[in-house]
């Protein structure tokens, strides 16, 4: 194997690679990363950084080693936008349309550094234990329940997802449902599908001038607020924290005030113990007679038998549900009493729109998820940034520049035990640590340090010293 010139420093590739192979493949070449195609995000900023920063040539693109050595397995028909981001980096990308049975998955995962999945692939402890080269998991979806994230963290494997790429899709669905409920569109359409002409105006309303009450004013709730005001609605919202209102929306101090003041109530809170059945009999009693309820958040938020009672009593004039306490694992005739004991009562109600958890299911959302998760994977592999990781502390350092050719970035994922930083800093302390950041999440801590003016042999020494500490989970070197 030849020596490779890295900026000003000449490094002996053979000896070096022997000591780095626990996270990388055997093939080795140190790259000086001469072409700056993107930069690290500044802390707190995720998203389309690759394209936005493409022209900033002063930034040095870090790499763990030759990018063609990075092996990526993408399962479950990951959107092309995501595949494109990864192949553009020069990584070896294998793409499969389906998920894999566990034994096949174990065979494949042994070899890869990155795996991209959606909701069907289960990355259990049994599977992850075999993934000796794995650096990072990308969940190209919202949820991460399919991954044993704690086991992954304990073994130095970061997990990323895309929680907010579909916020707009949900907000638009809710706008459609507000009008559909006010005009009883679901009932009129299904009557006519059965051949019945039923032209009525009684109980049908315009939404202009009506009040929309939003419970949970986060990514989706605030998008919805803007759309609803544009359609002539008055918006009030209730949230656990004080928030800046969009447009002329007003925050109300209690859930009761929201329920009493709204013609339409829509829920956009996370699933938490506090939000479990947060709309039940008492809350239906506080709603205006003839008002409407929409839930596209989580199924546990509404007490559905209480909703059925409120609709039968005429208290609630219509409802739209996209999420349920139990949801089937696949498509088919599963929405029945076996799944949820009240399913058939719910189905029999008038003016109720029932959708199969499609709030975020649009082409645009899939495409945005593809880009967001792939970019997070690239940032993690190339620069070590954990911004947005669901199982690691969020750590990032500002980018190195082309004027810093002999700098190295050390990443040390370790058990969060007393005295560990003293030992790490004893190792790094003799060198010029330009910048350093560390944070912990539970038992796992993540340290990044940029060190200037180091030769190949010093990098090797630093690497070996960190590797020999008993607190070590994973050590990585980027340059
Ligand atoms: N139907 C779908 O396909 C779909 C798609 C995406 C998201 N979702 C769900 O929508 C919900 C909202 O998502 P988001 O991205 O807007 O979340 P978010 O985290 O951006 O916002 C949630 C808001 O709820 C508030 N909140 C938390 N607990 C509360 C409480 N007890 N009372 C009042 N407010 C409270 C938070 O302060 C926050 O402002 C989540 O449950 C998410 O899982 C559903």
TrEMBL record:
Residues passing through the membrane, by range: none
PROSITE patterns for this protein: ACT, D_2_HYDROXYACID_DH_1, D_2_HYDROXYACID_DH_3
Pathway, per record: Amino-acid biosynthesis; L-serine biosynthesis; L-serine from 3-phospho-D-glycerate: step 1/3
Pfam families, A to Z: 2-Hacid_dh (PF00389), 2-Hacid_dh_C (PF02826)
Listed EC numbers: 1.1.1.399, 1.1.1.95
Domain ACT: start-end pairs: 409-479
Reaction it catalyzes: (R)-2-hydroxyglutarate + NAD(+) = 2-oxoglutarate + NADH + H(+); (2R)-3-phosphoglycerate + NAD(+) = 3-phosphooxypyruvate + NADH + H(+)
UniProt keyword annotations, A-Z: Amino-acid biosynthesis, NAD, Oxidoreductase, Phosphoprotein, Serine biosynthesis
Keyword Amino-acid biosynthesis: yes
UniProt GO BP: L-serine biosynthetic process
GO molecular function, one term: NAD binding
SUPFAM superfamilies to which the protein is assigned, alphabetical: ACT-like, Formate/glycerate dehydrogenase catalytic domain-like, NAD(P)-binding Rossmann-fold domains
Function: Catalyzes the reversible oxidation of 3-phospho-D-glycerate to 3-phosphonooxypyruvate, the first step of the phosphorylated L-serine biosynthesis pathway. Also catalyzes the reversible oxidation of 2-hydroxyglutarate to 2-oxoglutarate.
Protein family: Belongs to the D-isomer specific 2-hydroxyacid dehydrogenase family.
Protein name (database record): 2-oxoglutarate reductase
Organism per entry: Heterodermia speciosa
């Amino acid at each position: 194997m030849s020596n490779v010139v890295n900026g000003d420093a000449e490094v002996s590739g053979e000896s070096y690679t022997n000591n780095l192979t626990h996270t990388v493949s055997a093939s080795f070449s140190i790259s000086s990363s001469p072409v700056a195609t993107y930069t690290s995000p500044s802390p707190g900023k995720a998203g389309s950084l690759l394209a936005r920063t493409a022209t900033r040539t002063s930034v040095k693109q870090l790499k763990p080693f030759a990018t063609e050595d990075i092996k990526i397995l993408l399962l479950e028909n990951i959107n092309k936008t995501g595949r494109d981001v990864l192949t553009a980096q020069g990584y070896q990308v294998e793409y499969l349309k389906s998920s894999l049975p566990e034994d096949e998955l174990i065979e494949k995962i042994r070899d890869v550094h990155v795996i991209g999945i959606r909701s069907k692939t289960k990355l259990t402890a049994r599977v992850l234990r075999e993934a000796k080269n794995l650096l990072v998991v990308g969940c190209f979806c919202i949820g991460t329940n399919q991954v044993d994230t704690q086991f992954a963290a304990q073994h130095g494997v970061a997990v990323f997802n895309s929680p907010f790429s579909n916020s707009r899709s949900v907000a638009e669905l809710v706008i459609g449902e507000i009008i559909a409920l006010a005009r009883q569109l679901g009932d009129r359409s299904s009557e006519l599908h059965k051949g019945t002409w039923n032209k009525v105006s009684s109980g049908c309303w315009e939404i202009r001038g009506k009040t929309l009450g939003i419970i949970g004013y986060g990514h989706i709730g605030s998008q919805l607020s803007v759309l609803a005001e544009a359609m002539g609605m008055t918006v009030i919202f209730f949230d656990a924290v004080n928030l800046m209102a969009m447009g002329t929306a007003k925050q109300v101090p209690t859930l009761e005030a929201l329920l009493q003041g709204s013609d339409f109530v829509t829920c956009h809170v996370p699933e938490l113990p506090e939000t479990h059945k947060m709309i039940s009999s008492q809350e239906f009693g506080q709603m205006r007679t003839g008002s409407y309820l929409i839930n596209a958040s989580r199924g546990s938020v509404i007490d559905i038998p209480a909703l059925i009672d409120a609709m039968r009593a005429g208290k609630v004039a219509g409802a739209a549900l996209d999420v349920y306490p139990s949801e089937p694992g696949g498509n088919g005739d599963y929405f029945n009493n076996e799944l949820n004991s009240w399913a058939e009562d719910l189905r029999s109600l008038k003016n109720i729109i029932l959708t199969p958890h499609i709030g975020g299911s649009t082409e645009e959302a899939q495409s945005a998820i593809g880009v967001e998760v792939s970019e997070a994977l690239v940032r993690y592999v190339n620069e070590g940034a954990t911004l947005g990781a669901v199982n690691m502390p969020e750590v990032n350092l500002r980018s190195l520049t082309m004027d810093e050719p002999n700098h190295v970035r050390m990443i040390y994922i370790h058990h969060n035990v007393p005295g560990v930083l003293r030992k790490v800093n004893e190792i790094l302390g003799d060198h010029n640590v330009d910048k350093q950041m560390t944070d912990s999440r539970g038992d796992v801590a993540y340290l990044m340090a940029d060190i200037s003016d180091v030769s190949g042999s010093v990098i090797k020494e630093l690497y070996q010293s960190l590797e020999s500490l008993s607190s070590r989970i994973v050590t990585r070197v980027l340059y």
